[in-house]
Amino acid sequence: MNRKILLGALIPTVGWLLIHAIFLIEHQIELEFAFSDAALFAIPLGMAAWIGGITLRYYRPDWKRIPAILIWTATEALIIIYLYDYLAENLGQMDWRINEQLSQGNTLLFLLVYFVLNIFTLFVWIWLNNLEKEVIDKRSLETEKLAKESELEGLKLQLQPHFLFNSLNSVNALLHVNPEEASRMVLLLSDFFRSSLRKSQDTLITLNEELETVQLYLQIEEIRFSSRLLVEIKLQEYCNELKLPALILQPIIENAIKHGLYGTTEKVVIQIEAVKSMNQLILRVSNPYTREDSTISKGTGFGLKSVNRRLYLIYARNDLMKLEKNQEKFVVQLTLPQ
Amino acid sequence: MKKVIIVDDEPLARSLIKKYLDKHPNFEVIDECGDGFEASKSILKFNPDLIFLDIQMPRISGFELLEILENPPSVIFTTAFDEFALKAFESNAIDYLLKPFSIERFNKALSKYEAMNPDQGQLKKMLNEVLPLHSEQERIVVKNGADIRVVPIVEIVYLEAMDDYVKIFTQNGMFMKKQTMSYFEKTLEDKGFVRVHRSILLNSGELHRIEPSEKDHYSAILKSGKKISLSRQGYGRLREKLGI
Lengths: 338, 244
Description:
The complex is a heterodimer.
Chain A: H1 2-26, H2 31-58, H3 66-90, H4 106-177, H5 179-199, E1 204-206, H6 207-224, E2 229-235, E3 243-245, H7 249-260, E4 268-277, E5 280-288, H8 301-315, E6 321-325, E7 329-337
Parallel strand pairs in A: 2-4
Antiparallel strand pairs in A: 1-3, 4-5, 5-7, 6-7
Helix pairs in contact in A: 1-2, 1-4, 2-3, 2-4, 3-4, 4-5, 4-8, 5-6, 6-7
Chain B: E1 2-7, H1 11-21, E2 27-33, H2 36-46, E3 50-54, H3 62-68, E4 74-79, H4 83-92, E5 96-98, H5 103-115, H6 120-130, E6 139-144, E7 147-152, E8 156-162, E9 165-170, E10 173-178, H7 181-188, E11 193-197, E12 200-203, E13 207-212, E14 218-222, E15 227-230, H8 232-242
Parallel strand pairs in B: 1-2, 1-3, 3-4, 4-5
Antiparallel strand pairs in B: 6-7, 8-9, 8-12, 9-10, 11-12, 13-14, 14-15
């Protein structure tokens, strides 16, 4: 970074050197004279710029301190001019200044130097600020990412214990009434938890994979709720390979089952539909629901809320889950950008 | 003979408890319910001595069911996983069964029930502790005769104390609930509710404007046009809540 500031300081130095020299040559000053005179001016200027730049690196005043910077650069400009005057006089190079036209006084010279130094300072200031902001942004992006990941893991974990312990309880019950079914249940549970553990690292999976897990889950639920459950899955072509966050469907289906099974002793049909539309995967899970349900609170418990939160964390959008209630159906619709 | 009702949304979970109870001839299962609404009707009808109650159920939770019962029977809770509830059970010596549970653990719970007299005060205390923490505390369950209503907190305009009851005024009518004002003040505080008067708890989101009425007194005008007079302290609390 220091080297970049040094290189940066060379720009006004060389620029000044050339313009100064060319200006003198235009006024019939000898080449050698012109350049040495220009160098007497340009080198202190470059040094001042360089010192200013290095200082800014370690101490960068905010906007309120601008007057201090202006005073500082003004002082530098004055020193440069008087140093130049002093050196030029003592080295006997003042001859050309006799020319009226050129010695319009130090005021113009001062303003020029002052302008150059301030512009240089401004550039360094902006450059350093951007650099610092980039570093901070990168860091906060990383912490944000970490936080999101751990939150996702947390949400997933929170979804599982109820299901796990309730299922184990069902296994315990089945051992007394139907040991064969108990055995089937244990195997299904193992498959389900194995597949959800395997998937916890990958954020996105295909609909096909998700539906396999869902099938396992549904078979477990069918046993738990004594085969009153009927699930219809309607997939549009091309949907199988579309991506979605792992285990996003499970809490929705869990919700549909809980609410669908209520208030009736008949078979309950839960529908899962998948449609591709404008590069989005649209999933609809619907369950029948009765009038009494209309009293239910708008926020439907932890399950659906966590789905919404996960979608927000992954896609940074809050409008991907929609709930619809009509006369006989409750529908959860997910829109998943591809 | 003790009358028992089993409340659980899973048939298998209910069948297990029935199975375990087979070994206890002095207990008779008179009904099984799959949710809290059914259970509240059944409890009124049969007046059981003991209920086995699941906490996590659709519609209303086990806790909400107990809250709306005038005289809740003795309870043994059954739950798969509920960290807040477990703490409340332990601190109030009310028995609970963690699913899955063994027959030994089940028998222990039954003998504990037989040994001690059910204490309703303790149950109420536990409910007051656990209900505000409960994950679904975004609603209030009220009961009018056999009619149970779930009132979302966002729909509440204000609450008014009346003797032992609190009147809950919502966008869809008024409901009564037997509960203390200070309970609601505590649980609804961080949901934007302010005690603007000794007997009024106002949803600050329903406020339209505040205007002076008599000398040194102010009234709140609600979005519905209703006028509520503010006590001196209530006016201060309301201003504090609104940050003015």
